[in-house]
Design brief:
Keywords: DNA-binding, Phosphoprotein, Transcription, Transcription regulation, Two-component regulatory system
Strand content: 15-25%
InterPro entries: CheY-like_superfamily, OmpR/PhoB-type_DNA-bd, Sig_transdc_resp-reg_C-effctor, Sig_transdc_resp-reg_receiver, WalR-like, WH-like_DNA-bd_sf
Structural class: alpha/beta
Strand order of the largest sheet: 2-1-3-4-5
Number of strands: 11
Order of helices and strands: EHEHEHEHEHEEEEHHHEE
GO molecular function: DNA binding
Radius of gyration: 18 Å
Protein name: DNA-binding response regulator
Organism: Paenibacillus helianthi
Distance between the termini: 39 Å
Largest sheet: 5 strands, parallel
């Protein structure tokens, strides 16, 4: 089954070039030229990945990202001419998984997309068991998190981050190591993206966020006492 990508870009020529490269790479493609059409297509197309421009009519990419992330964990690559760090941080805060700045090589964009999908697949590989901490339960077979009996929606990077920490229980993992394991060694952002995702993950865990410990000057660890298991 082919992977499905939703390409959201208001510049027709750029959108067509990106589409052609993804089709040649074996993806099923649907296009949108503005934010409103993007959301309409998202609801009917159910893409595996979204390539999302920021500067668009009717609704900008950041707003589309926020709305999509409120109901889905689908991977999102932000595509924009803006290169300022605060724009990248804003995109990651809204739940974007990667950031590509114009001008760009379509081949590089394809490589980033495939790398993102590969990491998601590897980290979502069924493990056939439940991972419990406090009132929370992470089902690695169904890729679902429940906290106090309530299902909590996790974005892909939030899931990968939590799974990484839990699989290395009581081991301090540096921000650099987290970047390499979750975002990949080709990630060109800074370490603040880790702090942002930790903050969002803690908010979703509520009281159980105490299991994720900050080790000042070193990184983060998942701390669980033997009696807690």
């Amino acid at each position: 089954m082919s992977k499905k990508v939703l390409i959201v870009e208001d510049e027709t020529r750029i959108r067509e070039i990106i589409s052609d490269y993804f089709i040649q790479d074996g993806w099923e493609v649907i296009e949108a030229e503005n934010g409103k059409d993007a959301l309409d297509n998202f609801d009917s197309f159910y893409p595996d990945l979204i390539i999302l421009d920021v500067m668009m009519p009717k609704m900008n990419g950041f707003e589309v990202c926020r709305k999509v992330r409120s109901r889905s964990g689908v991977p999102i690559i932000i595509l924009t001419a803006k290169s300022a760090d605060h724009d990248k941080v804003h995109g990651f805060e809204l739940g974007a998984d990667d950031y590509v700045t114009k001008p760009f090589s379509p081949k590089v964009l394809i490589a980033r997309a495939n790398s993102l999908m590969k990491r998601a697949t590897e980290n979502y590989k069924p493990q056939g068991h439940m991972m419990k901490f406090g009132s929370a339960m992470l089902n690695t077979l169904a890729h679902k998190l429940e906290v106090d009996g309530r299902e909590v929606e996790l974005a892909p990077k939030e899931y990968e981050l939590l799974l990484l920490l839990m699989n290395n229980e009581n081991v301090v993992i540096s921000r650099e190591a987290i970047i390499n394991r979750v975002w990949g060694i080709d990630f060109d952002g800074d370490y603040r993206v880790v702090d942002t995702h930790i903050k969002k993950l803690r908010a979703k865990l509520g009281y159980e966020s105490s299991y994720i410990r900050t080790v000042i000057g070193a990184g983060y660890k998942f701390h669980q006492e033997i009696g807690d298991k």
